[in-house]
Amino acid sequence: MNHEVEVSNLMFNKSSDEPIDFKKYDINVELEEESSNDQKTVLKYSIDLTSNPKNSVINISGNTVLSGEQSEIEEFLKQEDQKTPQVVSLIYQELFPLIYIISKNMKIPAPSHTISQDQIIEPSKQNNKTNVESPIQSESHNESLETNESKPEENSKTSEDVNKKQDEIDAIKQNESQ
């Protein structure tokens, strides 16, 4: 199975420049099926990361395209026992380097580099649950994520990857300014 994650909207807000020490983010993920056929499924996503206590909000939205066999796609979309579908983790992993760079530029702790499959806070907000037979129509998930600062040993490889990407971005900006 192949996938693409596109970002169409990026918003971030920090309500205060005062340093606030927080250890987790509350995350709200919304998914809605835009289109589907035998070869691919297009999903609209929106991810809101809100610091707890509330000081900062990061919102990223766009589309993701899953291509391949319908059975493979359905496996990524299914939701069992109120756990987060695999497609949410797939999207989050693609977006994490961007989220990391934004959080560091905002001078706030970065969220964890993974979404745990069993950290759902309010399962009652999940309106349309998914089963194996039918692809998702729309879903909403609320979760809590610890910040990277609380688990530095788990994030060293991801941080190195993000730092390399940031170096590449800085080099491109420097070449454009010359």
Compute the average pLDDT.
75
The H-and-E topology, N to C, reads as: EEEEHHEH
- How many domains, in number, for the residues? 1
Name the helicity range. Answer: 25-40%
Strand order of the biggest β-sheet: 1-4-3-2-5
- What share of residues are in beta strands? 25-35%
The description of the largest β-sheet is:
5 strands, antiparallel
Shape: globular
Quick one: how many beta strands? 5
Q: CA-to-CA gap between the ends? A: 41 Å
> Unreliable runs, pLDDT <50, ≥5 residues?
117-139, 150-159
- Write down the CATH topology: Bacterial Protein-export protein SecB
The CATH architecture can be given as Roll
Instruction: Enumerate how many helices there are, as a single number.
Output: 3
The CATH class designation is Alpha Beta
Structural class: alpha+beta
Radius of gyration: 17 Å
Report on this model:
This protein has 178 residues and is of the alpha+beta class. The chain has a single domain (2-177), classed as Roll (Bacterial Protein-export protein SecB). The chain is 30% helix and 34% strand. The protein has 3 helices and 5 strands. Strands 1-4-3-2-5 form a 5-stranded antiparallel sheet, with helices on one face. The longest helix has 26 residues, at 152-177. The protein is globular. The termini are far apart. The model is unreliable at 117-139 and 150-159 (pLDDT under 50).
